[in-house]
Amino acid sequence: MITTADEKLLRRAIAIAAHATALGDAPYGSLLAGPDGTILREAHNTVRRDNDISAHPELKLARWAARELDPATAARTTMYTSCQPCGMCAGGIVRSGLGRVVYALSTEQLVALNPESGTWPTVTQDGPALFEEARTPIEDHYRPQR
Predict the structure, then answer these.
(1) What is the pTM of this model?
(2) Strand order in the sheet with 39-44
């Protein structure tokens, strides 16, 4: 359920996205808010400027949270973002332990506004393979130390 307080912070994320375009970057913005609604950090998309396909604001903030916040604080933190996180960012958000994401535009709405954003090609994936060989480093890493 999106509250009035959520809408205020979401409007800030949209403003960050608008400012990004003034800087020559893509129009995506995000922020992290603590449990009391205090803005902890803001970011915008810098994929073009940084020549880095991972420079999405959601992923930058998820990485910051994983580095800087203890797990209990991260779990009570909300990310506000101008568009629904892509798969790459969603994975980072999950791994960072953030508790909630509130977004303005859905992926479907974004693609309707910018059809080019929905044209990523499919990548062929083959596997699983070599289970017996691949399992050894995993088992060695997670085996309890005695």
Answers:
(1) 0.91
(2) 39-44, 29-33, 78-83, 100-105
